[in-house]
Amino acid sequence: MKPKDVAASHFQTAGGAYAKYRPTYPAELATFLALQCRQHNTALDLGCGTGQFSKLIANHFKQVLATDVSASQIDNAVPASNIRFAVEPAEQCSADDGSVDLIVAAQAAHWFDLARFYEEVERIAAPGAVLALVSYGVLAIDEAKCNERFGKFYYDEIGPYWPPERKHVDNGYASFEFPFQAIKYPSLSIERNWTLEQFLGYVGTWSSIRAATKAGEGAILGEFSKELASLWGDPNQQTKITWPIAKRLGRV
């Protein structure tokens, strides 16, 4: 099965949970990317999910094309006047030749056929367009005991159920070939203050959880949830969660 087909399989029915539980990128990231662009006519958000980042980009561009291979994700996206959502693969999108000023793939590029994707980037890029491959890495919980228990869960317990593409997220896409003129970028992170329910809801959206459940090992999440709850304390207590943001930025 090709990576894009694996992605569709993992996320085809997960749009509602994604919209509710997945963290959004900071507005500062969209602002920074827009400042790198020479024009602000059209942006493309590939693998857009439910359009969380698409909405941030839309504040800086006349129009945004937001695409995903999962119809469920697109169905759960919130409409906006200058965003057109479409069920399309990243390697074959409906953007016109030479029309896109900013091309973004946020937490999605590891599913792409990179060679074909880069060919598509060259086709649709406007002169001087910016390509941004963005991901957020392994989270940290701002409570030592909870963070330690999470690390064991992530690497040792649920780790074997991540698809092979996950390694690219863990290394911030550093292993990707990237044949574009590099653009320097500032250090940014995602920060959220979450209750236990919000945190576990996010974990429940992982493709590794779906894979473990399909393999008959769904109890892994239940056991982790119980142990984390005993360490968390009051389940309504908010705890700071931080994800480092990795970026591969280039000018096409």
TrEMBL record:
Coiled coil: none annotated. The keyword NADP does not apply. GO terms for biological process: methylation. Keywords: Methyltransferase, Transferase. InterPro entries: Diverse_substrate_MTase, Methyltransf_11, SAM-dependent_MTases_sf. It comes from the Bacteria. The keyword Transferase applies. Its EC number is 2.1.1.144. GO terms for molecular function: trans-aconitate 2-methyltransferase activity. Residues 44-132 form the Methyltransferase type domain. Belongs to the methyltransferase superfamily. This is Trans-aconitate 2-methyltransferase. It comes from Pseudovibrio axinellae.
